Amino acid sequence: MRSRPYGISARLVAWGEAGGNVVLYYLITGVDIVKAVIMAGGEGTRLRPVSINEPKPMARLLDNPALEYILQLLEKNGVTEACLTLKFMPETIIDYISGRRGIKLHTSIEREALGTAGSVRACAEFIGEDDFLVISGDCVCDFDLRDMIAFHKAKMAEATIALYEHPEPLEYGLVVTREDGRIAEFIEKPPWEGVVTNTINTGIYILSPALFNNKVPPGKKYDFGKAFFPAILAENRGLYGMAQKGYWCDIGSPEAYRRCAIDMLEGRVKVNIHAPEVNPGIYSASPIPEGVTIVPPVYIGSNVTLRRGAKIGSRTVIGDNSDIAGTVRDSVVNGATISDGAVIAGAVICKGAVIGKSAAVSEDAVIGEETIIGEQAVIAESVNIWPARQIPAGKTVKSSITHGHIKAGMSFTARGVISGGLGTELTVEDCLKLGQAAASFGRVGLGHFGGDAARIVAETIGCGICARGAELLTFDSGLPSCASFVGERMNLPFTICVNQRLDNVELTCFGKSGSMLSHALERELSSISDRDDAPYTGKIGHTEHLRGVSEIYAAAAMTYAFSHEGGGEGLAVSVTAEESQNKVFKKALTLLGCTVVEQTSGRPCFTLGNDGTALYAIGEDGQQFLPAQMLALICALALEYGQSKLAVPFDAPAAIETLAEPYHAEIYRLGRDGDEAEALYRNLRPLHDGVFAGALICARMKKDGITLTDLMARKVPAFANVEREVPLTRARAEVMGELSKTACELGAEFSDGIRFGVQSGTVLISPLRTKNAIRIRAEGANIEIAEELCTDVLDLLKDF
Known about the structure:
By secondary structure, the chain is α/β, with parallel strands linked by helices.
């Protein structure tokens, strides 16, 4: 049997004599793991321009690299030996650790990207046969790792993850645990609607090498969050999470970096500040002359020149070799010059930068290394200026001087959707940079409809795509479902649809072959757009225009319906509204042989949602059918066609599982069942295309000679949904975290929300993207049951 990998920590508490021998009594205070792997290969793309000329773990916090604080943490917790995985600028880290005393250090350099788990797997020879610790080299924390090691041992775990409750968990993998600490669910970096808890994976692990080496292939790209942990969770291995007390911060952005430095000053994190405390809250390794105003807490490094009249603090870090004559507050200045009369408020000023006389740098701005800001220039809030730039005297800079940065105003407001007003939320610069980011896919589809604003947005995006050398395929439709169809038929890796309604412009983005844009692809697109890539590659992309797309789309919907159910000759239906999506729908029905008439009682009436994906209907008796019911009807028809596997959205009605039971068919849900669900959903177009779905239903009505109301009654079990939006006073992530603990014991599913079944029905609870609120959707056999279930959940929320 393999020996356990723990050194023993003990304290002498008493001694005595027995039989002529001295007896010592020790209290066991903990167990140690003596080896660790430090993941230190990060480039720190989101941290730019702070980290543009060094690896992320070398970003300076109070004049020490972030890595130094991790090394001190390991030493404090009994780790005696560590191996650092390196990739980006490895020599910088090697130079730093080469003269360092204390913990014994080794390095492993990645020649090719191996992912988080793959890079650790490359350290197998160093790790040996004993359980070991894994930690990121670019975070700052003060956890008691010995408590975690003791927990790991007590549970006889094969893997233990350090967990932390975070108020803004979007950038992290989420973890749901059971009462005993066993992990029940992973959600990897979700959008807001997928934030089912505020408990995050900190990237600190204790692992069994036997399990780890067996699961992670050597020399292959493999990630902890995306592959390793989901794999061992699926096998029900000994995977645990332990909530940590204390401080943790990933310095992944300039805002987080500045906040972490200030947290150190204010004592929120237990670290050693390497400067003497010359007065309460004032740490200074340089003399402070008369005539300088300092308001604590403040850190002042070595070789700092403070000029008479300078005003520093509070909450300010002045790094080594800085020269300060102006006013600095709530900021980090790392070896820069701040001239007389200049004001730095809530910013980060990098090494070698010069801020001219009477210039102003505003909150959340970052000035890169060796950049010169001219006299009386003004740098507005949240502006990033890359290294070695020069801003003329008197100039006001309101947007970042960098390549490929999408500002927060152009974030995704729904799955794959960016929306806003032209010139406000969507600027010409934004659209150009979005096109440049989209060009990374090599070949891009682009359609637009609705007005001049949509045209300008589309043309600007197209310029960005072609300027980066990508191929552009344009088409004459701004209907998202049609754009998805084009992406599928033309096998495009990326497609953008631009639609204008009044003053609002909506951009809908699709992934491979017209599929829904995944959360991971949303993040990848944003990441690509944040990079400092050259805007011109030496190649101009070619543009091709595809004509008659709407007609081709309508004909394809007709052909699909006819091949499955036959034609609709003589069937009279109405389609309300004259928007572009309903015009295409009418065209498809006419090609199918249906007669499209004005809306009258006694005839079925259809309409499509704005994006063409959702189908609404009114039966001949006036009964209304919502998209959830129409989706259930499409699933019923697909099951009759012999589909043994169907995939539906995570929030689709539970009645669909009931439909599948007599057919012994499997129902997959998006977000819960991985890539297979995505492929199944994409390949059955009526599931996500209202034009295809409506044509198919009309053809079936004609074939069976029955009304829509009767078809629905025969094929779909009765159910009703009730939906409520609940504003919150507490942070939505915190509330979801509390709910997840209760829901986990109910056997809940976690993806785009928390979904669980009770005796009377099903409940889905999910946070909203754009505001501090949650949405409750209750499903029952009828409207009364659904209302009662929704009320019960609202009562539960009051307890939180």
